[in-house]
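R.M. (postdoc): so does anyone remember the format we settled on? I'll just put the structure tokens first.
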């Protein structure tokens, strides 16, 4: 029995830094380049593991050096890779990321092996919380969430990238965590609640977090930090929130911990490298309480 089962993507992130992001048809000069482990599934799995959860990941990498590298990261973080497939004759997913001097980013994702993920509901790991995103095929995420709902797991969806036709998946969601752009594409928090979602958590970057549930709406202010790179902040939030839900907290009680994790992630570069430990998250939470 794992605390958190993550169903999702694994990518190699190719990150270029520059003063400003280019417009359509424009070329700008970059000032840095790095390669990092990433993909929303891997990011969220590592975030959950570092924040204290036992984690299994369900996904796929390619049979290339990038795939070997990402599997090594999974194992090194203490995440169970028994359900991580290697897709033959397929490249590992990639994300092309540009980051400007204000820490804003633009991302292009090439699915690669992530598109080959197929869910065998008879062989999924058991857990308390299932956490998923939309960077693997939608029918597979839906199948996994429907199974999780049947066996009594709490289901948490980060609907990124946002898609319109999510009715079947939303029927199986306890918590949905969109950002401010994704929630608009999905028709708004009221529409999501009317489609059966128990709790909607809207992340708004430096503006904080809004929680909408059966009791109304609650806002949590962001932790004040100096951002370096916002890549992975939302994934950090999701992984940390899933950890606290697995520990028995409700969403409102878990928000401060998750918000602190997301804020800390923006203070250094890269997605996986910037994901904070539980000790660091608790220290930031304690600083606000003081």
């Amino acid at each position: 029995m794992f605390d958190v089962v993550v169903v999702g993507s694994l990518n190699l992130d190719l990150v270029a830094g520059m003063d400003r992001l280019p417009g359509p048809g424009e070329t700008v000069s970059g000032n840095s380049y790095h390669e990092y482990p990433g993909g929303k599934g891997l990011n969220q799995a590592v975030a959950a593991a570092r924040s204290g959860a036992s984690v299994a990941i369900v996904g796929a990498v390619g049979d290339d050096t990038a795939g070997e590298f990402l599997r090594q990261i999974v194992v090194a973080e203490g995440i169970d890779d028994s359900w991580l497939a290697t897709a033959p004759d397929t490249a590992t997913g990639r994300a092309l990321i540009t980051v400007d001097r204000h820490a804003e980013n633009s991302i292009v994702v090439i699915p690669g092996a992530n598109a080959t993920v197929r869910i065998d509901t008879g062989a999924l790991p058991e857990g308390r919380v299932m956490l998923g995103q939309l960077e693997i095929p939608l029918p597979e995420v839906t199948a996994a969430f429907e199974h999780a709902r049947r066996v009594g797991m709490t289901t948490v969806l980060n609907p990124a990238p946002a898609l319109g036709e999510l009715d079947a998946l939303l029927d199986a969601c306890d918590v949905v965590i969109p950002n401010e752009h994704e929630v608009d594409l999905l028709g708004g928090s009221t529409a999501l609640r009317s489609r059966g979602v128990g709790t909607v958590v809207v992340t708004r970057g430096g503006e904080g977090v809004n929680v909408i549930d059966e009791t109304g709406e609650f806002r949590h202010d962001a932790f004040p930090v100096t951002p370096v790179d916002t890549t992975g902040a939302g994934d950090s939030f999701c992984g940390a929130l899933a950890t606290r839900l697995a520990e028995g907290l409700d969403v409102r009680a878990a928000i401060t911990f998750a918000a602190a994790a997301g804020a800390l992630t923006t203070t250094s570069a890269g997605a996986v490298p910037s994901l904070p430990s539980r000790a660091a998250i608790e220290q930031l939470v304690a600083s606000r309480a003081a």
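R.M.: ...and that's the designed sequence above, right after the tokens. Also worth knowing: Residues 245 and 251 are 7 Å apart (CA to CA). The chain has one domain: 2-8+40-84+121-289.
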